Amino acid sequence: MADNKSKIDVPIGPPTDYGSRDTIINEVKADDGYDNYNPVEHRNLKNATTDFGSAAHVLKSSLGTGLIAMPNAIKNAGLIVGGISTVIVGIICAHAVHILIKSSQVACKRTRSPKLTYAETAESVFKTGPKGVRFLSSFSRSFVNVLLCVTYIGAVCVYIVFVSTTVQQLMEYYTGVNIPIRLYILTTFPTILVLGQIRNLRALVPLSTLANLSILIALAITYYYIFEDLQPISSVKMVNSIENFPKFLAIVVFAIEGVGVVLPVENNMRNPSHFLGCPSVLNVTMTIIITLYTLTGVFGYLRYGDKTEATITINLDTRQIPAQMVKMLMGLVILYTYGLQFYVPTEIIKNGVQGYFSARYKSIVQTCIRFLLVLCTLIIALLVPDLDPFISLVGSLCFSVLGIAVPAIIETVSCWEHHLGTLKWRLWKNVLMVIFSLFALIFGAWVSLQEIIALYK
Predict the structure, then answer these.
(1) What is the DSSP annotation of 424-451?
(2) Rounded Cα gap, residues 335 and 332, in angstroms
(3) 3-class DSSP state of 15
(4) pTM to 2 decimals?
(5) Which of 71, 83, 126, 364 could bond 137 through an S-S bridge, CB–CB 3.0 to 4.6 Å?
(6) Helices (H), 112-129
(7) Are the C-beta atoms of residues 304 and 312 closer than 8 Å to each other?
């Protein structure tokens, strides 16, 4: 039996016939009779998570700063357009995650691999795809890895800024001292340094569960403030200016997408077959996520109207104890989430460099990598300490491509020779997904960069 961490010595013919990973990927095809290979049977499930733990991770990967930024997103689109569009974008993001997981499962069977990361899935799909695209396999792996690192480093930078902003509000209320936001950002360093050293997803389950409970309490109090004094519908815009729509799109994509986390979660499940299907971990969690985002966005905007801030917690009256509880709870939630999101880039970089070091230095190298990445996120947060444009920039530049376009391309290549469907409907569907992603990328980034440039003028 091949080692779970290696896909090199895997038999594809008689028991004595062993080949390189590239040979396997180049020779094995979708219909070569290897459907009886079950990747799960060959996984190391020593630290596997339960369905509940996996659902907690998926929920936590999407329930963070994006949730409380939704009223601001709806403000940029208008009440009706924003509410309907949030549901549509949520369904698109959920579908993108679904086809990515499905493509990865197919790629595992084709290459007889126990499990594949996002980047390995892209590489394997291209190598086992049509001959005309096989030369892109190495590039696709590197592209996805770089994009994952940039995306999740950007996301945790947003978390640092949010936590610092929350602490600043509370401290100014209780002390009356106005301290620059960058000093608060610096004070987060010891905490995120500790969180950045957590190396096992299973060890993060208690934090994800605690974060989800904290979110429920914070949301309950937030909804109390929202529904306490809802403004009449006539006081808000039903449809906002078209030039603000890309910003709405970027915020929603940033908010809902957790594509970099889902494959590690599925790979680490005790029962991976429960991740897809109906009902399933993915369908249940995404339904909860889309519902919460739509409700929070629509009613949050209806409550605060044009005065809606980058996150709804900023709108809450700091003089009231329940509002202070919300701010503290959401601050803790984001801190808990830091470790989960930070797991993605650290694993990619660790796997990329550990081959250059002796096994005896493996732990030291990983510690240094995590320390340097934490320091990197802190520096970026210091450079852009403003939430509003930061959230939309990360969403447009990273999550739109990584969470929508790349899964659509991977599915197209994976299904090209046999499974595009009647009238090639999968191809046309995925073309529309890529166009949608590029729209969010180009126009969302343009609007966000303009706002960031304006901050330094």
Answers:
(1) GHHHHHHHHHHHHHHHHHHHHHHHHHHH
(2) 5
(3) coil
(4) 0.78
(5) 126
(6) 118-127
(7) yes
The amino acid sitting at 173 is Y
Provide the token pair at 256.
């809902």
Q: How far is residue 54's CA from residue 270's CA, in Å, rounded to a whole number?
A: 9
Packing angle of the helix pair 281-304, 70-77 (nearest 10 deg): 70
**Nearest in space to 67 (alpha carbons), one of 212, 265, 177:** 212
* Burial of 27 per CB tally in 10 Å (0-12, 13-18, 19+): middle
Question: Could you give the CA distance from residue 203 to residue 195 in angstroms, rounded to a whole number?
Answer: 11
Cα 408 to Cα 189, 331, 431, distances in angstroms: 38, 34, 8
HSE (side-chain half, CA atoms, 13 Å) at 10: 25
Q: How far is CA 255 from CA 69, 239, 368, in A?
A: 8, 21, 30
**Continuous segment of H or E residues that includes residue 151:** helix 137-175
* Segment 312-320 long-range contacts (CB within 8 Å, at least 24 positions apart): 312/68, 312/69, 312/70, 312/71, 312/72, 312/222, 312/226, 313/68, 313/166, 313/222, 314/165, 314/169, 315/71, 316/222, 316/225, 317/225, 318/169, 318/170, 318/173, 319/173
Residue numbers of the chain with a pLDDT score lower than 50: 1-33
Cα–Cα distance, 59 to 212 (Å, whole number): 8
What number of helices (H) and strands (E) belong to the chain? 20, 2
Phi-psi category of 421—alpha, beta or left, where left has phi over 0 and alpha has psi -120 to 50? Answer: left
Tell me 11's DSSP state: E
Return d(Cα 344, Cα 61) in angstroms, integer: 11
Please check whether residue 141 is in contact with residue 69, taking contact to mean a CB–CB distance below 8 angstroms: no
Residue-level pLDDT at 31:
45
Per-residue pLDDT tens digits for 382-421: 887 776 676 777 777 777 888 889 999 999 998 887 778 7
Tens digits of per-residue pLDDT, 213-252?
A: 887 888 889 889 888 888 888 888 898 888 888 888 888 8
DSSP character at residue 48: P
Q: How far apart are CA 176 and CA 172, in angstroms?
A: 5
CATH of the structural domain 61-455, one choice from 3.20.20.110, 1.20.1740.10, 1.10.8.60, 2.40.160.210: 1.20.1740.10
Close Cβ partners of 404 (under 8 Å, ≥ 6 residues apart)? 92, 93, 96, 253, 257, 433, 434, 436, 437, 440
pLDDT of residue 125: 92
